[in-house]
Amino acid sequence: MGCRNKFGMTNMLYIVGTPIGNLEDLSYRQGKILASSDIILTEDTRTTVFLLQKIESLFGFKKKKTQKLVSYYKEKEFERLPSVLKYIEDGLQISLISQAGMPVISDPGYLLVSTVIKEGLPFTVVPGPSAVTTALTHSGFKAENSMFVGFLPKRRAELIKLLYKIRQIKTLFPDAVFIAFESPNRIQKSLQMISDILPDIEVVVARELTKKFEEAVRGKPSELEKRKYKGEITLLLS
Predict the structure, then answer these.
(1) Which pLDDT value is given to residue 189?
(2) What is the mean pLDDT of the segment spanning 206-227?
(3) How many Å apart are CA 162 and CA 173, to the nearest integer?
(4) Residue 212 CB-half CA count within 13 A
(5) What is the pLDDT of residue 8?
(6) What average pLDDT is seen over the chain?
(7) Phi-psi bin for 106: left (phi > 0), alpha (psi -120 to 50), beta?
(8) Which helix (DSSP H) or strand (DSSP E) does residue 222 occupy?
(9) Which region holds residue 8: left if phi is over 0, alpha if psi is between -120 and 50, else beta?
(10) Domains identified in the chain and CATH numbers
(11) How far apart are CA 186 and CA 156, in angstroms?
């Protein structure tokens, strides 16, 4: 399972959750692992620099002098895969992070995780905040039967198809909650389409979670489509 470094961490691949907005949501374990990593695979190297600075200020963990930040986003996953596997095989400590939240959850990481499982390489998951679970708790909806559908489709026909599927599922599971990510540029049009197909459904628009302007608004889609929204949005239908 790899050797231990001077931080007491085992050298392997770490899938690390990071704050979705408020950097004070960092955990001690996250900070220790990221500071001691030889390589951090990250969607945005600039935000990772700020994250490492926050880790030092909160916990006193200084990043490794030889640490390398590697740009790693969905379009680069396949291209980066061979070199990342070589890093793991060479016994380096590798961390994969998203720009915010948990990797793999609508973020890069699926290809890497599925491959290391297939190859029998060592890895572990370091849990952290997720907009999905945070928004679900904010909503006040029953959480037992929830389904995350990722980003809502950009194409109108695909979104209509998804909404009709949701309507069918709701006939079988009335308490089911559907969770999705949406862009502030498209949210009003999406709410209009939801209003057309699911006019009586209860909706929560949660935005800027854990940040200064955090907000969760509730109502029917026809009511919420009249509002304007900024920032990162998580949409819940129940």
Answers:
(1) 95
(2) 95
(3) 16
(4) 0
(5) 54
(6) 93
(7) left
(8) helix 221-224
(9) left
(10) 13-126 (3.40.1010.10), 131-237 (3.30.950.10)
(11) 11
For the record, the structure tokens of 145 come out as: 């039967």
Q: Which residue has the tokens 């399972």?
A: 1
SS (H, E, C) 112-126: HHHHHHHHCCCEEEE
Q: Contact at 8 Å (CB) between 67 and 37?
A: yes
Q: How many whole angstroms separate alpha carbon 15 and alpha carbon 41?
A: 10
Tokens describing residue 123: 């890895």
Given a contact cutoff of 8 angstroms between Cβ atoms, the answer to whether 111 and 31 are in contact is no
Strand 203-207: give its sheet, edge to edge: 146-151, 177-182, 233-237, 203-207, 215-219
Tell how strand 39-42 and strand 94-97 pair up: parallel
- Residue 51, Cβ neighbours under 10 Å: how many? 23
Q: Which of 234, 223, 184 has its CA nearest to residue 201?
A: 223
Q: Quick one: which of 206, 138, 202 has its CA closest to 176?
A: 202
Q: How far, in Å, are 3, 25, 35 from residue 64 at the CA level?
A: 17, 22, 6
60-63 contact pairs (CB < 8 A, 24+): 61/31, 61/32, 61/34, 61/35, 61/36, 62/35, 63/34, 63/35
Q: Are 177 and 237 in contact (CB under 8 A)?
A: yes
pLDDT tens for residues 165-206?
999 999 999 999 999 999 999 999 999 999 999 999 999 999
pTM score, two decimals?
Answer: 0.88
The first and second tokens of residue 32, run together, are 């220790």
Reading the block at residue 166, the tokens are 């949701």
Give mean pLDDT, residues 145-167. 95
Per-residue pLDDT, 141: 94
